[in-house]
Amino acid sequence: MADADDAVIGRRGSQPKGVARRQEILDRAIEVFRARGADGTSLRKIAEEIGVSHAALLHYFDSREQLLVAVYAHAEARRDKPAALVPGIDTMIDAATRNVEVPGLVTLYSTLLAASLESRSEVGREFFATRFERLRAELTASLRAQQAEGTVRDDVPAEHLAALIIAASDGLQIQWLLEPSVGLESTLRTLGALLRPPA
Amino acid sequence: MADADDAVIGRRGSQPKGVARRQEILDRAIEVFRARGADGTSLRKIAEEIGVSHAALLHYFDSREQLLVAVYAHAEARRDKPAALVPGIDTMIDAATRNVEVPGLVTLYSTLLAASLESRSEVGREFFATRFERLRAELTASLRAQQAEGTVRDDVPAEHLAALIIAASDGLQIQWLLEPSVGLESTLRTLGALLRPPA
């Protein structure tokens, strides 16, 4: 995933030293966002807080949006991911429950996603459009295989189920953050139950 | 819904003239957001664009967040709503497809929802927590009645289905805005199919 994201967010400084410095900046930027949130923070202020010059920050990131998208992609890539799992409702439940454990990650994701809908967004719009497309394609292929083997009901289109699982996971993380009694995992397991073929 | 929202967003100026003026400001503010988006617009700039003084705006709204939440509630209330429909998947499909027809409404909703997750949010957090709670309660009651009459499967908790329908609707509106081929209405109809009891 890191390579695809780097392409989208226009990584500069491809020499090893530049890459390492960029990672360092992102590591510190994540801490700033955890502590302060993403809303209303200028690039200049972020530079101040992570202790680099504004010019240095602009060397690596063209805009605040580009930095924020890179921070999100970096935070997501940094998390331990279970390797080689078949994408499906279980991997989405796993990702959703791990997301809400990282303070600020869902907030940052939601903030960037909302900003990507603004007409002047470029980096964010491309990042999220690409991300959703990839996720939907992976899930659809996996759900089709499960439909063929009889573990997912096959009377509904796999691509609809893929879009629904992603939407439900995104939406429920927010509902859960606002009201923890909602039951993020149990509600997603109910979606899993809806996907199974009638006994 | 207007009364509940007014309580949350702390309406001032309860005399008729103040109310009318406030509505007028909100009508003009909606146009500003449609044209410019909600991101990065200060209260002073908004006042300038809608042609009122900054002080006048502060008389009606304590903060930028309060104004934005009021704009969203106002835009939502202003849309024609089908009266006396039983809440359920069909009313949610109807609301979702009408939402995406109003330019900027989903963007404003998503921006405010993301901001409500920030720790310093007060107005927005209360508005959305209350809104989700009311929607979930209405949908749950309605789904329970449908489970009792046999039109919705009853082997899964109605409150999970309610949270899922809202999450799917919110999430799919965003996916659709980024990629219109996703099929907002058809995908939500598939969720409707998942809710029906096995034939």
Automatic annotation (TrEMBL), chains A, B:
GO molecular function: DNA-binding transcription factor activity; transcription cis-regulatory region binding
Keyword Repressor part of the UniProt annotation: yes
Domain HTH tetR-type, first and last residues per copy: 19-79
DNA-binding segment(s): 42-61
Keyword terms of this UniProt record: DNA-binding, Repressor, Transcription, Transcription regulation
Name this polypeptide is given: AcrR family transcriptional regulator
Taxonomic source organism: Microbacterium marinum
